[in-house]
Specification:
alpha/beta, Rossmann fold, six-stranded mixed beta sheet, four-stranded antiparallel beta sheet, 7 helices
Length: about 240
């Protein structure tokens, strides 16, 4: 598979503290990559660099071969909170980035509304965020992220605020959506199970500054019930 997003030789330090040095991350078309590690290890810093929000001290980031290092706006980035505005309807919240980009309100609302059924949001167009469950709010936030840039999606702990049952349902739902839309996704998580369920490749971020990499191929639908799942989980714990 061709890499759609690549980060090579990435280094970042704050004052005298080195966060990481010489990191390489690749994302192929239609693939999901997980950045896994404990809190404070630099996952969000690396994601900010991938999105162009932050410039690395060394290295570069390319999207479809184009250098986007330190250039935001090329990749959709969904942070931990859904950031839905409470005084706008769900439909307007989803369409807002398109309106900000310059599309007419009418066209933006039409485009956004066209995805509501596919994302399981049909009937919620005129609701307000406070009227939605946590899972439905995340669906709306994911749709808003998707329509901004359909090539690559960056997700920072997208299901971290949900209860365990809803979180597992959303993970399964996202796998179906990502496959159907052929999304290329980078997801931050500190949950080993979530990384194994969602990802085709896991980059493990630990104190050693270098990345351990686990490739996952041809996972069965009941992967989390298999011996291989338990084996890989133990391997990841040993890395961390």
């Amino acid at each position: 598979m061709n890499n759609i997003l690549s980060a090579k030789g990435i280094a970042k330090a704050f004052d005298d503290k080195v966060i990481f040095r010489g990191l390489d991350v690749d994302l192929s078309e239609g693939q999901t990559v997980a950045l896994l590690g404990p809190s404070g290890i630099g996952k969000t810093t690396l994601m900010n660099i991938l999105s162009g929000v932050m410039t690395p001290d060394e290295g570069r980031v390319t999207l479809c071969g184009e250098d986007i290092t330190g250039k935001p706006g090329h990749i959709s980035y969904m942070q931990q909170k859904d950031l839905l505005l409470p005084y706008y309807t769900v439909l307007y919240n989803v369409a807002l980035p398109l309106i900000i980009k310059g599309e007419s309100k009418k066209e933006a609302l039409k485009k956004a509304g066209g995805y509501f059924e596919f994302f399981g949001l049909a009937g919620y167009e005129d609701k307000y965020p406070k009227e939605l469950s946590g899972g439905m709010r995340q669906r709306a936030a994911l749709l808003r992220t998707y329509i901004q840039s359909r090539k690559v999606v960056l997700l920072d702990e997208p299901f971290g605020a949900l209860d365990a049952v809803t979180r597992r349902k959303m993970q399964k739902w996202y796998l179906g959506i990502a496959k159907e839309l052929e999304l290329s996704t980078v997801v931050i998580t500190h949950d080993t199970d979530e990384a194994l369920i969602l990802a085709d490749r896991i980059y493990i971020m630990g104190e050693g500054k270098e990345l351990d990499v686990i490739e996952l191929k041809d996972k069965p639908s009941d992967f989390e019930l298999t011996e291989e799942f338990i084996k890989l989980k133990k391997q990841i714990v040993s890395y961390l």
